[in-house]
């Protein structure tokens, strides 16, 4: 199968090369375009009232592209964790507190399609590097336009302004049996552009029982029918398998971090239970944009999603089928009065999910006796309104709000009579007010205040214990933010700083019972104070015979996140630090590009110790991760770019955990990350123009 796939890719590359016309070559990894922020429908290079960070596909050229962890962790205020290969948590300003696994409380869109389902869960592991060109990251509550969620917003886009017809093929191999194939074909022109991507990933993993295999295919087509009308269609299919090794105790972690969870008491080992995730995802949507007349535009998206999950664990065997559908529409009116620009946005977003979850006894990795069988209907809806005033392009004022409703209904079909249980969370208002003052050269200061709310997700209402928990309250909080950005040295040096205070009430936090099953409680309130600093310096050496350019980036995060008033039984956790959040993190990177196509990249990440339980009695040690890569992009043909490279991750050979289990029973907190490991790869990019 691998030989057939490689043959097809090589054949496609050669066919495109033979039939291509001569066009000026553009290396997508060197194209620098002004990034236009689309969050909150701003569509401007500097967003209103906050700093929105952008992750680019080409920025991943410093890593082995197996996961997005390193790219996310280079951003101040963001932290991505990987409990085992393929199992991710995204922590934006502490938002992973309620996520023992998976991505919750962060709203994610792909090409304007909500991939966060109606039940509040996001299968972020369905995405590969070549499914997007950019990812916008908004930190803090975004509910004024994007509904439920207090933990931030991610907007993923397949196309950007640098798109061009091209064929890309890349192969990566590395330690622990890593095999990565990336392929994409872009065809058409800017008004009728199409992109097909494919990714195959497999690895034996660093730890025992951590094999991974994924196949991912996407197709995106955008057709500009006229100056007034544009249609975009997107399809994504993902087939993912990964083994789950389970958490280790501190003794096991230090003695042999590569081992999987051993048998303990009545529970089998991870290998004996054949613990794993079998996951299939399908997402499809159509986005239509129409300008009725000057200044009045509508954008509407309709979509459908389906997820199928099978999850044998040491406790049971879970099977989930999760179809869903929905739509989002927004009307935008823009008008300019002398030197003042006005923008009004009104719209709505609706999602409906019809889920079924069956839990059975696990008998050697096979489903045995049925324990529970639940049909779940989850509806979520949001109506939003926002006004934006720009005065002389210097002062920008944004005010918006949404009203939201969520409704969940459980039917436990294995009970006779059938058990019905439900809950409605309604009339939740999420306002946002932001003020920004812009100066010359892109410098700016801003302030904002926003309120967000987040009802319990299905995974929290129906946790691993199997007990339906409709008594849980929605969490809600107010975020205050102040910051600015400045450009120095003729734009070579860019500095950004943000300070925030977020008070969250009814905070949802995870717990483990004596069998290590997850369940959730409302934990009073939390007080989250933080500072985020980043610097970006780049310069070119036009007259130097050796150097071409240097690019250096740094990001620092300070997090003082604590419980406010929180008592559980007779234990008072008030004032304790929130688990899973390091107090300090530092991310550094440096790129050096030489004239002859040789380049060097390096990245460094440091995190201080973090507590692993609410009582702050257990902590994971801090760690330092260093990665380096060297490559060569020789001048092959006028239209063909080749890139040959090799790299190393965790050069310092640290023993650390990149995804701890919080409040774990039996002290099983630790999931070891790979020690020093190597990779090498080769890629081809062929730019071409379609024959007329």
Summarize the structure.
The chain is mostly beta strands and 692 residues long. It has 5 helices and 37 strands. The relative contact order is 0.14.
Write the layout of secondary structure elements.
Blueprint: H1 2-19, E1 53-56, H2 69-72, E2 78-84, E3 87-92, E4 103-104, E5 107-110, E6 113-114, E7 121-122, E8 134-138, H3 143-146, E9 153-157, E10 166-174, E11 178-189, E12 192-203, E13 212-224, E14 229-243, H4 250-255, E15 276-293, E16 296-312, E17 317-337, E18 340-363, E19 366-391, E20 395-412, E21 419-438, E22 444-454, H5 458-461, E23 475-488, E24 493-505, E25 508-512, E26 518-522, E27 525-540, E28 547-563, E29 567-568, E30 571-572, E31 584-594, E32 598-607, E33 610-611, E34 619-620, E35 623-632, E36 640-649, E37 677-687
Parallel strand pairs: 5-9
Antiparallel strand pairs: 1-8, 2-3, 4-7, 5-6, 8-9, 10-11, 10-37, 11-12, 12-13, 13-14, 14-15, 15-16, 16-17, 17-18, 18-19, 19-20, 20-21, 21-22, 22-23, 23-24, 24-27, 25-26, 27-28, 28-31, 29-30, 31-32, 32-35, 33-34, 35-36, 36-37
